[in-house]
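Predict structure. Chain length: 406.
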Amino acid sequence: MSLKIAADNFPPLLVGETENFVVVREYDEGRDKVAVEEMEKRCEIGPRGKPSLVTDLMGDPICRIRLFPSHVMLVAECGEGGEMAGVIRACIKTVTRGSSGYVKVAYILGLRVSPSHRRLGIGIKLVQEIEKRCKQQGAEYSYMATDCTNESSINLFTRKCCYTKFRTLTMLVQPVHAHYKPLGSGIATIRLTPKFAETIYSRVFVDAEFFAKDIGTILSSKLNLGTFMAVPKNCLPQWDPKTGILPSNFAILSIWNTKEVFKLQVKGVSKLTHACCTGSRLLDAWMPWLRLPSFPDVFRQFGVYFLYGLHMEGKNAPRLMKALCAFAHNMARDDDGCGAVVAEVGQRDPVREVIPHWRKFSWAEDLWCIKKLADEKPDVDRESEPPDWMKRQSSSPVIFVDPRDS
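Prediction complete.
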């Protein structure tokens, strides 16, 4: 059962005067659901003549943070009529910050301001209020993620809310074709139990950044479709999982089903583009032996499989990781309505060069910005304190991406 951040000590925040005053308060599902959905639809309408990616939260505006034990969603109302002007979400979790141990962080997402109420400072008010609530729940840092080309979002957080550009990740997208992908010969794919997967992940990601302390909860979630390990078949007779010793060559990943939380749809493409994409898929379905790189039907709502916990070791590891990605693709191929397999990894992560993807179908680089919320502790010995996370480069190239953040 998910526990929301207590709101008893947070009365509505009133800002401004007369017709422009803004009320920031906690989201009330019965009262706000329809207004929030309508407002977010207005925010997602792209420029005329250009394709846009539209997200359908399937009637649950709080779905993207519901799986976190601590979460909050705020709305902003403007004017005497209480018109819905903005919304913001956040969750609190405990993650690693590299070799310096665990830290409590707030992840801010889903900030939207109605097009008719922009440049009134509403976005800043929402960020400040949600930071205050997260800080009172013990969050030492807050961070957010946005497309590197989203200048308005970057400027809001870095210039007006004092966030620092922190890490850059790559989003890799593999469309789900009409044909199955070959797994390669001599490779065994093993499904791991959540408990065994937790043991492996806790070991291999011990020095990574943002590795979730509640990884066991993630792996046991109904949205987790399984954790899979690929190893050479010839090593199976010699490997005994009970010893706790990992094979010398292996790759591992987990698969998260986002299509149960939200769905995507591409709108605004030309008729010619639509026809070409449809034709490629029909041709691939009729002649699968050609293994054409067909384009999925993204013009109707589709779901995504998110790959996380990607790790590999050994000289044959790249081939094993490619086999696992093909295995995930084939699972998605059998799931009606799943249009893509997605992974997000750090720019220095070795798996980045191995994961199959379409360059033109992949989104831009993802920029993570961070801010320190915790006040300085006057009575703490500075030498015993871990170094400021914001001021150092991690020794590990790996950034663990929580699938609940997707």
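Summary: The radius of gyration is 23 Å.
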